[in-house]
C-alpha cells in the first residue's frame, strides 16, 4: 500500500514538473513563419537571403524530435500545395544553399511518416 502511494506521488510530481518545462510541439504556423522569407526564392529562384537561411536554420533547430521532423515535413508539403507556384527544385536545394543539414529531402514525394 505504501508503495502504491509512493508511485502516485511520484507520478503527480512528474506531471506537475512537466508543465514547468513549457514543452511545445512544432506547429505549422512556426514552420510557415520560419520560412516566410524564403517564398520569393522558392517561387522564382535567384539568390537566397540571409533572413531565409536564418529561418531554415531556426526550423531545423526547432525540429528536435522525430515527430517534430515529421510534422515539419507534412507542413512543408501542405503549405507548398496551398500556395502553388513553389518550384520543387528550388525547395530541394534550399537546405544546401543555406548550409543546413536537414535529414530528409524537401519534396512533395517525401514520405513524411518514414522520417526518423
UniProtKB/TrEMBL annotation:
**Gene3D superfamilies linked to this entry:** Plant lipid-transfer and hydrophobic proteins
Which CDD domains does this entry report, sorted A to Z? nsLTP1
Which parts form a coiled-coil structure per UniProt? none
What SMART domains does the annotation carry? AAI
Q: Which residues form the signal peptide?
A: 1-25
Q: Name one GO molecular function term.
A: lipid binding
Q: Name one GO biological process term.
A: lipid transport
Bifunctional inhibitor/plant lipid transfer protein/seed storage helical domain ranges (all copies): 28-112
Keywords in alphabetical order: Disulfide bond, Lipid-binding, Signal, Transport
Q: Which InterPro entries match?
A: Bifun_inhib/LTP/seed_sf, Bifunc_inhib/LTP/seed_store, Plant_nsLTP
Record's family? Belongs to the plant LTP family.
Name the PANTHER family for this protein.
Answer: NON-SPECIFIC LIPID-TRANSFER PROTEIN 2-RELATED (PTHR33076)
* Free-text function comment from the UniProt entry: Plant non-specific lipid-transfer proteins transfer phospholipids as well as galactolipids across membranes. May play a role in wax or cutin deposition in the cell walls of expanding epidermal cells and certain secretory tissues.
Q: What is this protein called?
A: Non-specific lipid-transfer protein
Q: Per the UniProt entry, what species is this protein from, by scientific name?
A: Salix brachista
Amino acid at each position: 500500500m505504501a508503495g502504491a502511494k509512493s508511485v502516485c506521488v511520484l507520478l503527480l510530481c512528474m506531471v506537475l514538473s512537466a508543465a514547468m518545462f513549457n514543452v511545445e510541439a512544432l506547429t505549422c504556423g512556426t514552420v510557415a513563419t520560419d520560412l516566410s522569407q524564403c517564398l520569393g526564392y522558392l517561387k522564382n529562384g535567384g539568390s537566397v537571403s540571409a533572413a531565409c537561411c536564418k529561418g531554415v536554420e531556426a526550423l531545423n533547430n526547432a525540429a528536435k524530435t522525430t515527430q517534430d521532423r515529421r510534422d515539419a515535413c507534412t507542413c512543408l508539403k501542405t503549405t507548398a500545395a496551398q500556395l502553388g507556384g513553389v518550384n520543387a527544385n528550388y525547395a530541394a536545394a534550399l537546405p544546401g544553399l543555406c548550409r543546413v543539414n536537414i535529414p530528409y529531402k524537401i519534396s512533395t514525394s517525401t514520405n513524411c511518416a518514414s522520417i526518423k
